[in-house]
Write a structure and sequence with these properties.
The protein has 333 residues and is of the alpha/beta class. It is 42% helix and 12% strand.
Length: 333
Amino acid sequence: MATPSKIDPSTDVLDRFGHSKDNTYATLSGLSGVPESTLWHRDHSRPSIQQKGAKQQYLTIQEEKALVNYVLRMSRNRYPLPVKFVRTLALVIIRQRVSIFQTPATEDDDIRLPGKNWPQAFYKRHPELKAMRIKALDWERHDHYIYEKVVEWFAVIGKELANPLILAENIYNMDETGVLLSVLNSLKVLVSKNELRNYRGVGVKRTLITAIECVSADGRYLHPLIIWPAATHQSTWTVHPTPRWHFGHSETGYTDTAISLHWIQHVFDPQTKARAKNNPQILINNGFGTHESLELIKYCYENNIILCRLPSHTSHKLQPCDVGVFGSLKTAY
């Protein structure tokens, strides 16, 4: 048999075993245990299955590692990422890569979502992840008491605050509060001295106005967003000057997913982005479902905003806005 050209991997095998035989594929296969066909393919620059698979992956190895770290962080912060959202975040990474390297003749419309089975293959490639079905559970029905939830919360937020890149000026707490219009808490009246009833029956029209407020850990506050219970906003509703206030509206006067996204994009980010100087920002909020839309999570992911959710039914202890701000506001109202 004609002796092929010597190849480095085979030479390493010979050196390791201390033999000086001819470097035929059969000889090298016997010494290393590698099939002759594999040695021939490597000698003729044919990539391995692993190398070929890496080139065919939607994301690079480094990009997948970054996405894995983000999924783990979201889970740790009580925002477990729905599997169906992973495809969109992968698309965000691809678009960021294209914008950085300015790939010629590539438009956003040319970049497609990964296949519908891509998320399953993604978490199977990474054993630190797993998919599971979770049910909505009221924390009041959970085995843990509030003390355990509070201790767990400080362990969760402590890991984020230990990051030296996160400064007090970039840590924010947002919350919503609502007030009912034309409803007095109590009223002094004249009655018979024998009257025992300490309440009065009235017809209450529960018209609610919601305010979204946000404060930072270094004492700054952002301009509020007021939500009217209406289909449109009328300027005549504000009879006093409200410079730089923001207004929204919904049928019920409560916040919804569209208003939450609008608040992040047009209230929070414009007032905090320049101060952050590309450093990560932490936004602590409660567990309302309106804070969990795909669009909101995607926007926070793109703009380095880390969401941290307070445990449910602990706002009266852990929510700074509830404890220090809204109580005084409602007392004054």
